[in-house]
Design goal:
The protein is mainly α and 287 residues long. It has 11 helices and 7 strands. It folds into 3 domains: 100 residues, no CATH class; 71 residues, no CATH class; 51 residues, no CATH class. It has a 3-stranded antiparallel sheet. A two-stranded antiparallel sheet has the order 1-2. The protein is globular.
Amino acid sequence: MIIDYMLAVIALIWLIAASASDIKRREVANWLSFSLLAIASGLRAIGAITMKQPSYFLYGILVFAIFYAISELFYQTKIFAGGDAKLLVALGVVFATQPSFSQPFRILSLEFPFIAVLFYNILFIGSLFGIVYSIVLAITNRKRFIKEFSKLEKAHRKKICFFEIILLILPFLFFITGIFSILILYFLGLIYPLLYVFVKSVENACMLKLANPKELTEGDWLVNAVKIGRKIIKPTADGLSMQEIRMIRKANKKVLIKQGIPFVPVFLIAVIVSLLNVLGEIVALII
């Protein structure tokens, strides 16, 4: 169906533009997300009318509601920035149904909706991307990272030791019960405390920046409260507003902000992988 091709091509073009903006300026313009959402909704409405299939449009509304709730959760917990959250909602409407030119993802006799596969790929690829990106940051800023890691490891040493002592008891229980597969969970639990210290060290040593007022953009995450005259600007999940930025610029005050990982390239890779069904073929082959 021609509309499925149009949706996919437009989404890829928009994602390339958004990725370039995210990498260069660490922000995604609202017009990119909103225009993609409007175009996808319009094309779905046209497709529903021409094919006489109302579900083609209604599925877009349903996925919009689901992805809006997920994006809001990710945004409030600071997993996503505002631009990432809006773009995810738009992608949900674009790929609410299985593209006619793409093979569905199957495991044995089970077939999974394309949007569920896309969401899984975003999480999976995003996790790998976050780990690799953090390692690169730690290496390029190794002096600050090592200093911060040593400080946090020392501060949490008692908790880490207690956590790992408890975990050391678990293999004996697994041996008795014969649940050897749970040893994987044990291994993950064993490295979790050190992984937490690693991530926090990267964040504190490599992702905090003392920014000049002119560098600030709407949505930047403030690390500490800033006092300007009688008003106090506090860190929020929404980040800095334009009114707060104007106040900071008027006071000509540098502020400490947290820089996020440029996540839009993950969306681009996940869409390509999902359309080509790359991970699906690998998983099916393993099974």
